[in-house]
Amino acid sequence: MSLLAAGGGEVLSFPILTALVLVPLIGAVATLLTSARRPEVTKLIALFSSVVTGGMSLWLLASFETGDAGFQFVSKHEWIQSWGIGWHLGVDGISLFLVVLTGVLFPLAIVGCDPHHDEKPYLAWLLMLEAGVMGSFLSLDLVLFFLFFEIVLVPMYFLIGRWGYDQRVYAATKFFLYTMVGSALMLVGIVTTALLASDQLGKVSFDLVEIAEGANFAASTGRWLFFAFAIAFAVKVPLFPLHTWLPDAHTQAPTAGSVILAGVLLKLGTYGLVRFGVYLFPEAAVWSREIFLTLAVIGILWGAIAATMQTDLKRLVAYSSVAHLGFIVLGTFAFTTEAISGGVMQMVNHGVSTGALFLLVGMIYERRHTRQIAELKGLQKVAPIFAAAFMVVMLSSIGVPGLNGFVGEFLVLIGSFSTARWWVVIGATGVILAALYLLWAYQRVFHGEPDEANSTFRELRLREGMVLLPFIGLIVFCGVYPKPMLDRIEPSAKALLVRVEERSGFSAPDVVHVDGSDEHGSAEEHGEEG
Amino acid sequence: MNTVEYPSIDWLAIMPMIILLGGALVLLVVGALTPRWPRSLYAVATVVLTIPTLVIEMILWNRVGHDGPVAVIGDVLAIDRMALLAWIGITVATALVALSSSEYLRREELDGPESYAMYVLAAIGGMALASANEFVVLFLGLETLSIALYVLAASHRRRVESQESGLKYFVLGGFASAFLLYGIALLYGATGTTNLTTMGRFLEAEVFLDGDDAMLLAGLALLLVGLGFKVAAVPFHFWTPDVYQGAPTPATSFMASVGKFAAFATMLRVLLVALPSRADDWRPVIWVMAIASVVIGSILAVVQTDVKRMLAYSSIGHAGFILIGVEAAGHSGDTDGLPSSLLYLVLYSVLVVGTFTVVSLVSRTGDGRTDLAAFRGLSKERPALALGMTVFLFAQAGMPVTSGFVAKFGVIKAAADNSSYAIAIVAMIASVVAAVLYLRIMISMWLSDAESGDDQREKVAVPFTSALVVTVSVAFTLFAGIFPGWLIDASRDALVLVR
Fold first, then answer.
1. Distance of alpha carbon B238 from the chain centroid
2. Mutate which of B331, B343, B378, B401 to disrupt the A interface (most A C-beta within 10 Å)?
3. Contact between chains at B409 and A176 (C-beta distance less than 8 A)
4. Model-level pTM?
5. Are strands A85-91 and A72-80 parallel, antiparallel or unpaired?
6. Which residues of B touch A184 (CB under 8 A)?
7. Residues near B396 by Cβ (< 8 Å), separated by ≥ 6?
8. Closest CB from A143, A151, A188 relative to B416
9. Which residue in A147, A157, A188 is closest to B424 by CB distance?
10. pLDDT in tens, B378-419
11. A191 touches chain B (CB under 8 A)
């Protein structure tokens, strides 16, 4: 009974993290085994397993020990002993909300989107994707992480390639190959990291925690290794100039694919940068921070400008992702507690708001069979509730105070100001540009008098509303009362920062407090070290 | 009067070969004298033949575990765990190929005992090759294997491509054997022995003064040419695509599994037992061959339109990956190179048999439809078969959770352990290029729309024996991908060679 014998050292005897990975996987297999003549049973099983997973992730959130910076609910087993690879799962403040986001987003994507054909394999791939994403966020073993990180490509490839739009095969292949190039280098990096660390550890082990605590890499070695990891994550984020796969993949993917891609898959990149880049190689991360800050800011501006030019609504949202993820990278490499917390928060916020935006764009496409902004007009008149929902989500994406987007972006900007001032100054214009392209798009699509084609635009249905409701609830809740979330993220972010400072000699001025007592003035006095 | 001193014979050690040889002869003679056997019986007989063989191989495996590796019959055959791993691999692959041939040969109206006897004879040659501790036996094994393979390549009597393939393989293979033989002769001239162990000891002790080792180096170079040809490594790969494409598909899978396994095993043994003291001379050659194979194999695979040709080039790429392990084994004090190459061979052998079995089903009657278009719509027509092929293709691309990932991980780890980072990075990038080819086949199966004329095509038939082979291969591919520990340990045990 290895399943029951697992579990964290602390409270639980039930291996909840292992269950979070296995339940969707079992669901996927069960879905495949159902009869093709009973589609409702298939859907029910898929929905059930994703809801169970979501429920478990919420339970995880409820029983998470606030204030503890370390890994919780740890599940650690031998797996491939001869190579030092283990089944090691754990969750901390940085990964907690990403796990919850994954748990919540998948059932909504399953309910909210219709694949139109071949529902059975579609649902099976989605559940397999969920297992892969969960595994990636939970893995504390380098090879285990790589395994999940890489296996995620397969379901996504088929989801885009089989259920996407006209250019789907091209987009799916591009997505697959771009990501695979990155992970090819990462695999060499992972192997080398473990082998070099084995001299100091006395054995070959791919365990993230063991390597991070037991091994110290020489600066030159660490930098090479860091880049081997960082390139893989930079492709996934995607960081300028490696972002060109994203607009294609997003635009061609079916709605559920886009929601998941934007909602959680891109976060694998930013999460990986934090967990495996910065945590394992703090010195190298600090050393190369200016490169990443610059690329992040270029990404913010590039994404925003490109989004402004788009004629396709879905492509516009896709480019806005590039910009938003730039903020997360900016926060990660600013190396202050606030910026890192803000970055993590922004990961979740972006998942919620962009996921919802893709859902809404998908609903528009279902009704009008076009995503061209020029062909849509005056939808507010015929579908006011739909327009209102779109408005809230869009405002959250822009980062209007009171909604969730604001909290993350604001924390990133304010936290980065002391250590990466000029990048923040330029990056902040991205916020204004976001308002520009989203509001302009909203104006073109929803304002004005609807022409003939748009006058029959159907109002939001009950089922669609039920799917959107959790998104809007989260958008408002996290915007108004982000404290419970930050309380759980911050200890881990702080611990990470302490580690960075210890290992690299970098020191962040400790002035800005999240609870409101901010003192920008003194931040400027301290400035950054160089 | 002179008396000849006969070596003592360890009967158990050669029992697997004796069983197979006896079986092959019985199959040929009885098969020729009796009217055609009922459906699948030839294949079943072959599989039955491999069962006691496997059992004795397992017994030997345990014996080596207790008593250590030994050289038997006047030190000409090395019974160590590397040889036994190769024997087991070869035996299993032979059984799988025999099963997958059964309905193929019926479909092509070639049914008869000959092909099966050839498989078994080739397997004996491969086994002798894998455990040869004596260059003369090595050559015997090589020729037994090769000649059976030439016949198999040409065994589709009505396809002119098959004839061409057999002839090409025969002519070029003859050349390669000549190179190898010349290399052996030169090595004998330089060291005065054809025994691998003795040669290894001699070279260990002997100090060559400047230029004195020219004959040795020339012999080594010719030997590498011959072996490079047999494992299909760049630049000795030119025969591979034509031969693989033209040969009957089950024969192709036999070449890619048994042929490759035996040739690599003997390459490892020659380099590590006879010539380890010359590692600094052969390692750079292997390095170049490895990089050239992964790069050229992957790039040329992508531009093909015929699936069998694609897989031929991809097998060149895989040979490059295995050579990475061989290169690693050439570093002093290395303990990962040999096990990782063997692990790769074990996993790849099963994988490639599975892949080619699907190809042989899709090629339909006449064995001619192996272009990408033949796979179009397979997911609609035969979803389970398409799913199985997808697993094989992802495994060949090295995706996690399949045996292909474990195989690649092993050799990359071995390379990184010896600080050969360049080779590791180049190989991984090349594997991304190769992924394009596997994706192309998958696009054809899953993502392409039907075209006019598709519905008039012959349906893809999936007979029971082939389905069994695909199922077993898929199960092994996934199981070994998730729980590879026991195979890794087995391949590590093979580290102790007869020296």
1. 17
2. B401
3. no
4. 0.92
5. antiparallel
6. 425, 428-429, 431-432
7. B314, B318, B351, B355, B404, B434, B438
8. A188
9. A188
10. 888 888 999 999 999 999 999 998 999 999 999 999 999 888
11. yes
Q: Say which residue the tokens 């598709």 belong to.
A: B454
Closest chain B C-alpha to A163 CA, distance in angstroms: 9
Tokens of A385: 């509730």
Closest to A365 (Cα-Cα) out of A5, A196, A114, A1 = A114
- A50-53: list long-range contacts, CB under 8 Å, 24+ apart: A50/A24, A50/A106, A50/A107, A50/A110, A50/A126, A50/A127, A50/A130, A51/A107, A52/A23, A52/A27, A53/A20, A53/A23, A53/A24, A53/A27, A53/A103, A53/A106, A53/A107, A53/A130, A53/A134
Task: Tell me whether residues A195 and B416 touch, CB distance under 8 A.
Answer: yes
- Please answer whether residues A125 and A27 qualify as being in contact, where contact means their C-beta atoms are separated by less than 8 angstroms: no
B403-435 in b/e burial notation, b at 16+ Cβ within 10 A?
A: bbbbbbbbbbbbbbbbebbebbbbbbbbbbbbb
- Give the integer Cα–Cα distance in Å for A249 and A261: 9
Quote the CA–CA distance of A361 and A256 in Å, as a whole number. 11
In whole angstroms, give the CA distance from residue B311 to residue B309: 5
**pLDDT tier at A453, thresholds 50, 70, 90:** confident
HEC states along A42-79?
HHHHHHHHHHHHHHHHHHHHHCCCCCCCCCEEEEEEEE
Chain B residues in contact with A28 (beta carbon < 8 A): none
Q: Do B421 and A192 touch (CB under 8 A)?
A: yes
What are A240-281's pLDDT values in tens digits?
A: 888 889 988 988 889 898 999 988 999 999 999 999 989 999
Question: Using the beta-carbon criterion (under 8 Å), do B432 and A177 form an inter-chain contact?
Answer: yes
Examine the predicted complex and report whether its ipTM is higher than 0.85.
yes
In the structure encoding, which two tokens stand for residue A191, read together? 């192997």
Q: Are strands B77-79 and A72-80 parallel, antiparallel or unpaired?
A: unpaired
Q: Are the C-beta atoms of A455 and A382 separated by less than 8 Å?
A: yes
Which DSSP category does B336 fall into? S
Structure tokens of A349?
């916020």
Substitution target from A192, A198, A227 for chain B, most B beta carbons within 10 A: A192
CA-CA distance, B226 to B129, in Å (whole number)? 13
Identity of the residue in B428, B436, B446 whose CB atom sits nearest the CB atom of A161? B446
Asked if the peptide bond before residue B484 counts as cis, ω within 30 degrees of 0, the response is no
Helix (H) or strand (E) holding A88: strand A85-91
Question: Which residue type is seen at B328?
Answer: A
* CB spacing of A83 vs B443 below 8 angstroms: no
Which residues in B lie closer than 8 A to residue A220 (C-beta atoms)?
none
Name the token pair of A418. Answer: 């002391």
Nearest CA in chain B to A153: B399
Contact between A126 and A155 under an 8 Å Cβ cutoff? The reply is yes
Q: Please provide the size of chain A in residues.
A: 530
CA B470 – CA B392 distance, rounded (Å): 9
How many CA atoms, within 13 angstroms, populate the side-chain half-sphere of residue B154?
Answer: 13
Give the Cβ contact number of residue A218 at 10 Å.
Answer: 9
Alpha carbon distance B272, B437 (integer Å): 34
Q: Which residues of B touch A79 (CB under 8 A)?
A: 485
pLDDT (tens digit per residue) in B178-214: 999 999 999 999 999 999 999 999 998 887 777 788 8
In sequence order, which residues have a C-beta less than 8 Å from that of residue B53 and are 6 or more positions away? Answer: B16, B19, B20, B91
Neighboring chain B residues of A229 at a CB cutoff of 8 Å:
none
Out of B436, B446, B484, whose CB is closest to A177?
A: B436
| Chain B: residues touching A (Cβ < 8 Å) | 394, 399-401, 405, 409, 412-413, 416-417, 421, 424-425, 428-429, 431-432, 435-436, 439, 443, 446-447, 483-485, 488-489, 492
With contact defined as beta carbons under 8 Å apart, do B277 and B203 qualify? yes
